């Protein structure tokens, strides 16, 4: 057996678990019957063979168990020794526990008797303490009742100090809430007295507060809020505080003013009451106009009187509540030092002035909205819509007076400037209706003056009616910055409509650019249309300095739209006149300015005669057709266009005069003569030259440059008066033929070169001229005069 144990495999037990023959027996769901049935059914051997096989496996299992026990024999012996030690220790612990339990039983017997006595004494002490507390409260209550009785005046039956009496009643009520004194005879005896006294004190406090409201209402109507007594209001609030009714003291006036104002709104906007008050026949059920003529005027004035009283009631109510809030914010209880406004309001509660403002404006919004309804409004809706500026002025004046009455240093005002919009918005239905009607009136006037069709233009009378309508709309609201800005936007819409209709009426066609003969009917139509738009623009432009800044700004863009249409209508005519003048000026390059000893120097050149004839024709057929005629004394669209035309003619002439090459001394005299004719022609037929500024100075300076020696050019003031390109072009006329002009070098005609100059900047033109000068100067044989000329031209290029 020992030899077998030594030869056994330590992993035999593990091998048995891995053996497939033993696997079915290790399952938790093993069933012996099912196993035997499956073994017999699935095997070809007999039952005896299966039995012997199982017995062999059992013997193998027993052998493995024996070997495992033998292998672990030292561990088993060690565990057995530990069990004996544990059993000995448990016996010692059992004896100790029994000793402790015995000691606890003895201690319990010794403690129970004193504990019972302690519970009894504690209950007696508790009862005694409760009795003492009740007696203390009763004594304190009796003292307070005695003091309260002392406050009663024996003669008048009133109270010497109402606030102190209220404080005593509040203290007595607190004692009653701290201890249950029911069933005590001395307490029950004073109950009826205290109940009647409480009602009496509360009634007198309410009477005082009501008297203050009445005093305020009377004083506000006569002398303003200066006569209000903060001391009286503070005394009444102190009584409410002592009674614990401070919140009620604040909420009651708010409810009172809200009810009164709501009732006033209904009375003011009731058509039947208005008609009855005005002494006119009662209105129809649908609220239609009660009468005509004098009767209509009478009930309208009665309506405005009622609205004025309603706004006064609004002001009085808000200022009254603000006055109470002002006292609440300053008043503190003398004993607890609690601020009254903190006592009556929560952190999320609005201030009384904010509450009353929100409530009254909501009522006013609702009432005016009902009056503006098409079915219910009737003649009231018509009156308030037609005379909305008066209603807006009434609302703005009411707000201004509220701000003025509550503007006290160190005190929060009743309203802020931002809240004015809330009051104005209460009448928004009438505002929208008024602005809509205003736009309709102006649109009708615009349509009458500018029908937007190709038929004959309207008369001056219709135009003046349109202008007068716009002036009237602006004038009615001139005193209100807010309404003035709104009306200005409406006028702007009418002006935009005018611009659209005028654009439809503008004639367009090839004949608009034909200026050689008499003006055509289409040109005359556009010039008259431009004059009409110009008159509208000029008339409204005179209103801008007298208007509010926001209102004036609202008109700028529409006026610019009108101006754009007016200019666009006649721009083809001005372009054609300028282009015709340019074509005539270009003829000077065909004139012989290089010949000496020319005859007939007293007469202008043929091209200049043609130019002055053309300008005279433009004045007679076109410029004189505008009303008013273009003049520096009368700023207008046409004056600006005419000035631009004159500037263009002068500048174009100077440019091409500087390109004349070669130029003899006689040619200079002839060119100077042409300049004099140009001054006369432009000044008399187009625009006074002395109002042109820089172009006129350029013409005069170029005339002097013609006769200035080359050596004197750089030291002359002409350098500052003439463009560098003009001076350089003219100096080329003094150079030898080998020094080619910039445009000749590039094979440009004078007309092409002039167009190139129009399309490029001054710096680009100077760069072009400088490049041409540098390229050709080195290739030319230069004498002293030429070197001097090239040096002057190079210096001009460098300085520019």
Structural account:
With 800 residues, the protein is mainly alpha-helical. The protein is 72% helix and 0% strand. The protein has 32 helices and no strands. Helix 12 runs parallel beside helix 16 and helix 24 (637-658) runs antiparallel to helix 25. The longest helix is centred in the N-terminal third of the chain and has 79 residues, at 73-151. The chain starts with a helix and ends with a helix. The relative contact order is 0.03.
Secondary-structure topology with pairs:
Layout: H1 2-7, H2 12-18, H3 23-26, H4 32-41, H5 47-71, H6 73-151, H7 162-178, H8 185-222, H9 230-243, H10 246-268, H11 271-278, H12 294-330, H13 340-344, H14 352-372, H15 378-386, H16 388-405, H17 420-425, H18 428-449, H19 460-476, H20 481-505, H21 521-541, H22 549-585, H23 606-621, H24 637-658, H25 665-685, H26 694-706, H27 718-721, H28 724-732, H29 742-745, H30 750-759, H31 762-777, H32 784-799
Helix pairs in contact: 6-7, 6-8, 7-8, 7-9, 8-9, 9-10, 9-12, 10-12, 10-14, 11-12, 12-14, 12-16, 15-16, 15-18, 18-19, 18-20, 19-21, 20-22, 21-22, 22-23, 22-24, 23-25, 24-25, 24-26, 24-28, 28-31, 28-32, 31-32
Provide a compact summary of the structure.
The protein is built from 32 helices and no strands.
How many strands appear in the DSSP assignment?
A: 0
What number of domains?
5
Structural class: mainly alpha
Number of helices: 32
What's the helical proportion of residues? over 70%
Largest sheet report: none
Low-confidence parts lasting 5 or more residues at pLDDT below 50? 1-10, 213-227, 281-291
Rounded to the nearest angstrom, the radius of gyration is 57 Å
Question: Outline, from the CA principal axes?
Answer: flat
User: For the residues shown, what is the average pLDDT?
Assistant: 82
What's the end-to-end separation, in Å? 131 Å
Bin the strand percentage: under 5%
């Amino acid at each position: 057996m020992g030899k077998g144990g030594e030869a056994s495999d330590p992993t035999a037990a593990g091998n048995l678990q891995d053996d497939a023959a033993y696997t079915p027996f290790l399952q938790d769901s093993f069933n012996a019957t099912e196993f035997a049935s499956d073994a017999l059914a699935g095997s070809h051997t007999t039952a005896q063979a299966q039995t012997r096989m199982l017995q062999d496996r059992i013997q193998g299992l027993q052998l493995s168990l024996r070997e495992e026990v033998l292998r672990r024999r030292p561990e088993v012996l060690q565990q057995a020794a530990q069990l004996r030690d544990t059993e000995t220790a448990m016996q010692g612990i059992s004896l100790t526990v029994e000793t402790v339990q015995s000691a606890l039983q003895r201690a319990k017997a010794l403690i129970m008797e004193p504990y019972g006595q302690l519970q009894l004494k504690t209950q007696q002490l508790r009862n005694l303490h409760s009795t003492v507390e009740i007696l203390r409260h009763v004594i304190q209550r009796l003292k307070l009742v005695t003091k309260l009785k002392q406050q009663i005046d024996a003669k008048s039956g009133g109270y010497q100090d109402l606030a102190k009496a209220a404080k005593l009643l509040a203290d007595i009520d607190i004692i009653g809430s701290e201890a249950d004194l029911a069933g005590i005879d001395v307490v029950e005896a004073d109950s009826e007295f205290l109940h009647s006294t409480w009602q009496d004190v509360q009634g007198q406090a309410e009477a005082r507060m009501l008297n203050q409201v009445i005093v305020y209402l009377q004083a506000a109507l006569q002398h303003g809020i200066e006569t209000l007594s903060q001391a009286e209001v503070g005394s009444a609030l102190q009584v409410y505080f002592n009674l614990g009714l401070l919140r009620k003291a604040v909420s009651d006036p708010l409810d009172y003013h809200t009810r009164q104002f709501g009732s006033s709104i209904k009375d003011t906007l009731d058509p039947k009451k208005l008609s009855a008050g005005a002494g006119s026949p009662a209105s129809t059920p649908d609220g239609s106009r009660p009468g005509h003529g004098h009767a209509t005027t009478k009930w309208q004035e009665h309506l405005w009187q009622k609205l004025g009283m309603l706004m006064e009631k609004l002001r009085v109510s808000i200022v009254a509540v603000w006055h109470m809030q002002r006292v609440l914010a300053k008043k503190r209880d003398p004993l607890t030092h609690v601020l009254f406004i903190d006592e009556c309001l929560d952190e999320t509660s609005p201030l009384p002035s904010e509450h009353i403002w929100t409530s009254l404006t909501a009522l006013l919004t609702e009432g005016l909205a009902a009056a503006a309804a098409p079915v219910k409004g009737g003649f009231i809706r018509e009156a308030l819509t037609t005379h909305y500026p008066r209603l807006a002025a009434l609302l703005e004046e009411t707000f201004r007076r509220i701000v003025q009455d509550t503007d006290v240093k160190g005190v929060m005002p009743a309203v802020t400037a931002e809240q004015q919009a809330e009051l104005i918005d209460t009448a928004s239905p009438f505002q929208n209706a008024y602005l809509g009607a205003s736009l309709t009136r102006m649109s009708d006037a615009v349509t009458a003056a500018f029908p937007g069709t190709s038929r004959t233009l309207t008369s001056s009378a219709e135009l003046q009616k349109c202008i007068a309508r716009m002036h009237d709309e602006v004038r009615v609201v001139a005193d209100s910055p807010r309404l003035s800005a709104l009306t200005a936007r409406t006028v702007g819409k009418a002006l935009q409509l005018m611009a659209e209709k005028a654009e439809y009426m503008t004639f367009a066609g090839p004949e608009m650019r034909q200026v050689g003969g008499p003006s055509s009917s289409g040109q005359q139509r556009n010039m008259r249309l431009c004059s009409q738009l110009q008159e509208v623009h000029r008339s409204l432009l005179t209103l801008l300095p007298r208007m509010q800044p926001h209102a004036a700004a609202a008109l700028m863009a529409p006026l610019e739209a009108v101006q754009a249409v007016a200019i666009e209508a006649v721009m083809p005519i001005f372009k054609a006149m300028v282009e015709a003048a340019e074509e005539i000026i270009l003829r000077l390059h065909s004139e012989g300015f290089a010949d000496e000893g020319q005859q007939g120097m007293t007469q202008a050149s043929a091209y200049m005669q043609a130019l002055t004839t053309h300008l005279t024709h433009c004045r007679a057929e076109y410029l004189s057709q505008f009303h008013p005629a273009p003049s520096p004394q009368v700023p207008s669209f046409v004056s600006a266009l005419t000035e631009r035309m004159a500037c263009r003619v002068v500048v174009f002439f100077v440019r091409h005069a500087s390109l004349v090459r070669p130029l003899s001394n006689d040619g200079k005299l002839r060119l100077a003569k042409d300049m004099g004719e140009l001054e006369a022609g432009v000044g008399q037929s187009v625009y006074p030259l002395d109002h042109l500024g820089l172009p006129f100075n350029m013409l005069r300076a170029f005339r002097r440059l013609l006769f200035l020696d080359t050596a004197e050019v750089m030291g002359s003031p002409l350098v500052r008066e003439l463009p560098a390109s003009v001076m350089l072009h003219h100096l080329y006329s003094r150079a030898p033929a080998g020094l080619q002009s910039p445009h000749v070098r590039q094979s440009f005609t004078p007309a092409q070169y002039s167009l190139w100059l129009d399309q490029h900047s001054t710096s680009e033109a100077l760069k072009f001229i400088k490049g041409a000068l540098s390229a050709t100067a080195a290739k030319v044989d230069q004498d002293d005069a030429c070197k001097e000329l090239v040096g002057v031209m190079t210096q001009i290029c460098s300085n520019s």
